[in-house]
Amino acid sequence: MFALCDVNSFYASCETVFRPDLRGRPVVVLSNNDGCVIARSTEAKQLGIAMGEPYFKQKERFQQFGVVCFSSNYELYADMSNRVMTTLEEMSPRVEIYSIDEAFCDLTGGTKLPRSDRFRARDKSDGPEAHAPDCRCRHCPDENPCQAG
């Protein structure tokens, strides 16, 4: 048995790790030079904000709905990805990293993955810097781990 672990709205989630005041608010991440939307929080998705929307066309709408915009920060996303993958590797005997925010984890044997399908990855330090974004793990059969759902 395998689990596909995926970080929820990865880039947007990374931006809120150190800004808990933004949790529950619409957050978007913009491409290089703040050209267009490349990531959205769940709340931003609920407002109908689409991937690829040009920022200059939506700026007034974002202000109207209190959407918080971030310029992309790939160094932060790489660090957060490393925290998540390290946590998964501590919980599972085999981890196959699929992308910056997804990994397949082997559930056979001594897995320490939580029973819940959601968890927050943490490293061993204390304080807000110990946090990483929320993850979701879906169990899938050995025969076809890519068909998780």
Automatic annotation (TrEMBL):
<dbReference type="InterPro" id="IPR043128">
    <property type="entry name" value="Rev_trsase/Diguanyl_cyclase"/>
</dbReference>
<dbReference type="GO" id="GO:0003887">
    <property type="term" value="F:DNA-directed DNA polymerase activity"/>
</dbReference>
<dbReference type="GO" id="GO:0005829">
    <property type="term" value="C:cytosol"/>
</dbReference>
<comment type="similarity">
    <text>Belongs to the DNA polymerase type-Y family.</text>
</comment>
<dbReference type="InterPro" id="IPR043502">
    <property type="entry name" value="DNA/RNA_pol_sf"/>
</dbReference>
<dbReference type="GO" id="GO:0006281">
    <property type="term" value="P:DNA repair"/>
</dbReference>
<dbReference type="Pfam" id="PF00817">
    <property type="entry name" value="IMS"/>
</dbReference>
<dbReference type="GO" id="GO:0042276">
    <property type="term" value="P:error-prone translesion synthesis"/>
</dbReference>
<feature type="domain" description="UmuC">
    <location>
        <begin position="2"/>
        <end position="109"/>
    </location>
</feature>
<dbReference type="GO" id="GO:0009432">
    <property type="term" value="P:SOS response"/>
</dbReference>
<dbReference type="InterPro" id="IPR050116">
    <property type="entry name" value="DNA_polymerase-Y"/>
</dbReference>
<protein>
    <submittedName>
        <fullName>DNA polymerase V subunit UmuC</fullName>
    </submittedName>
</protein>
<dbReference type="InterPro" id="IPR001126">
    <property type="entry name" value="UmuC"/>
</dbReference>
